[in-house]
């Protein structure tokens, strides 16, 4: 005879949570102002959670009590977790789906693998629509790693498949495609470099729709190719100390950095590639902080090589600017280079209409003048009547660079401008 009385046992352990006499651990959970102290029992916690075991054994007892803090879990979620630890019960009735995710996150932190597996399966099978509507865009992982993990997961679902796609039959590809049908649209293939595409995606081309694969291939081969609609932008990676700008965001910084390094033949796809940050942008001048006079520009920017200028136009969201690999000077002088370029963005969130214009007249790439700010050929002009007065003549036209970056050649006013010096980052 073999009988299990788990229901009563579970209830007794839940009641033990309310015990105010035999506990030997206190857990301070949450952050101000939402903090709560829970009483618990080290033996139960240590046997149920590998994470809590590691934390508890490293703490010394004070008057027979161990005290630990868990600041990254809310008291409400930890109450749910404790009921699972003690009684094997998951009480999420009436809870929002977001609470399921918070519980999953907490369970993962505490290494409660049984609970993690259950919640993942439950969310996928029962809350898929909610997950799609609240899809996160801040996964801190390179896109090639995402693709590799997707493939690894697909192989795990099909243990009879070998890992080498070159040995797969057409049936094998169909099996894998069916397994990954919901994952493939979420991989940002256009973010991959040409090398990553060639080595990691091309062998699996039969998993992708023919037209999509051809568009992807042509984005690397054809410099004049236009992006198709509805391509997912790169993930919002968190990168510190790249730039302090009030004009541009990290996507624009990535595009400009790629063009400085000439890493992508087709700049129309630059905004779709994985964000690229080889440089730190050191702020030299901000007009709204330092002033809009030629004198201040030359004080802060003269003799500085490798600078990028961003100009925000007044009355619109338009941004123009240029890259100067040479140094700025006060005396009237032309700078000769083949590496400078100018650019324009309709706004800081619209990258499809970006214009990058390379220098055409190398002898007239850069112009320095005591009564001017940054001047790129005769294409971007910022001039004043006096070194101590604000710029009063600002316009843009096609002359020394190969493309027109603005439709209008009329004078305009600016909200702000910034000049940065780029330096290689230490990775």
From TrEMBL:
InterPro entries registered for this protein in UniProt: BTB/POZ_dom, BTB_POZ_domain_cont_9, SKP1/BTB/POZ_sf, TLDc_dom
Name of the featured protein: BTB domain-containing protein
Pfam families membership: BTB, TLD
Gene3D superfamilies cross-referenced by the UniProt entry: Potassium Channel Kv1.1, Chain A
One term under GO cellular component: cytoplasm
Coiled coil location: none
UniProt-listed CDD domains: BTB_POZ_ZBTB_KLHL-like
Superkingdom, natural source: Eukaryota
Domain TLDc residue range list: 246-423
Limits of the BTB domain: 23-94
PANTHER family listed in its UniProt record: BTB/POZ DOMAIN-CONTAINING PROTEIN 9, BTB_POZ DOMAIN-CONTAINING PROTEIN 9
Organism of provenance: Rhizophagus clarus
